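Two records follow; treat each independently.
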Amino acid sequence: MPDNSARGAPFTEIFAKGSSAAITREITVEVPVALEFNGIAYAVMMATPADLPDFVTGFAITEQLVRHADEIEDIDIAETDKGWIVRAVLAPRAAAPVLERARRRVSESSCGLCGIENLEQIARPLPRIANPLDIDPQAIFAALGALRAQQHLGRRTAAVHAAAFCDIAGRILESREDVGRHNALDKLIGALARAGTPAAEGFFLLTARCSYELVEKTVVAGGRALATISAPTTLAIDRAKAAGLALHVLAREDSLLRVM
């Protein structure tokens, strides 16, 4: 699909010494992206409309609607005057969670218990990682040093997050970018799934704070190690420990923190 990730916008650049100049900068596109599964509207995300097949695939995996990319039989993408619509057709064996979500949404409109149900969803156990991955910190430092070259949209706009998948030596194998940190990770997970690359064979590196959602997406996708450039939340640490996910945070060129 064509590059819909950025567009030019005019600005006046004002300098501290008092001069100014008219310039044009590329700005990251942020639009509503509606995700539909088997004809059922599931979610609307504010996202950058690039790599959308990867996005819907990774989203379906991290939402635990499917386990593998081959459970998505077809993907259709359409642009409208209000945003983008991504329609995915799931295999019959994977359709039940979508129907359950639709049923729950109808009941939530009047049941009065949706808050409790949502809290239970957040507290549900994650799959336990049988063989946690012990990452050499030097591999993370190496990946950090190479990440800038992978941030093509980030260099143009300075307004997006990046998610990278790296081998155990710190070589970046794949990366994706998006205005949303969760979206960038979903796109990356989708790209790996579509390529048949096991998430357990390397580690994820994210230009984001480490929230519990990013921990959960990593674990559900089969990842064993995660590194982020910003700090974690308490829930992120708790969820990572419970699942056995190797977690490194505040990763900089000269230091990082390993969660104990």
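The next record belongs to a different protein.
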Amino acid sequence: MKTHGGHEPVHCTIVPPHVLDRLARHEDPALSGPARLTLERDAYERTHRRLTTVIGAPAVAAPPGAEEHAPHRTIYDARHRQDLPGKKVRGEGDKPGKDATVNRAYAGLGATFDLYLNAFQRTSINGEGLPLDATVHFDKDYNNAFWNGEQMVFGDGDGEIFLDFTLPVDVIGHELTHGVTQYTANLTYFGQPGALNESMSDVFGSLIKQYTLGQTAAEADWLIGAGLLAPRVTGTALRSMKAPGTAYDDDVLGKDPQPGTMDGYVRTGRDNGGVHINSGIPNHAFYLVAQALGGHAWERAGQIWYDTLTGGELPEQALFSDFARLTLAAARTRYNEGEELQAVSKAWEEVGVTPA
């Protein structure tokens, strides 16, 4: 069995760099200015993550007296500055305040904790009750949200292209799932393993939204970041798991570049080898499995994906074919030769991935 002692975190943002790159080149400074500042800040955070990897992140444990199977959330306010974590504005058990962004962040951390605990018996993102910290109102017009290996950070958006990043609960779940991957398979953030890393976050981010809303696979919209785009943008979300490549088609943002099958696989040196682009392929495979099995997607399809991510056999450099093989093995181990195995096999065939 493979073990992961390094837990090497990466700077993972919800808005792909190729989107910000396009915005940064726009002739309107109201659009290009916030995008350029966001790119600069993201570059700084990536450097910070590399330093943390070298020197090691500080060990964080649940506070004395904390309930074993309850979240321990702390929300901070950066007050539009860049210093982390900022001023503490809400702790675990505190009543909601007047700041809706603070309240949404608190609720989103709790929704993520609940899905992992109740569906997969995982206590917090590291499986050992890790406290969940988040900073809101980060920087001015900051067009992103990220997990930095230790905490969540949310920008308010520029109001022109992006709105408040606490609005979609799946964005919160997506970023925190990067932490789950960090503590388990530790997938390398480049090329196909990086696209799998992104896909894991989309899958469980979507499941967190579905779990919170009580939706079945048929009822879910399978969109990532619905409600995040400002009214002027022609689009519904950042990504679509149901129909990759259709989330937006806008004169400013361009067209959603995600492929849904290997026929459209994009080879690029940008975006860490296209991690936010090619993630559409395993995303769509999961959607197909969930639709074939029906019911609540976290119960069977999600269990297979969770078993694969946390089972200890997934290589850090895993290709799509490796992941497909291991999902088949996980389905067979948990459900024998039933419809679950057939659904997984058919889904990978439909997206053009041959199990290794």
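Discussion point: The two ends are 18 Å apart (CA to CA). How would you locate this feature using only the token line?
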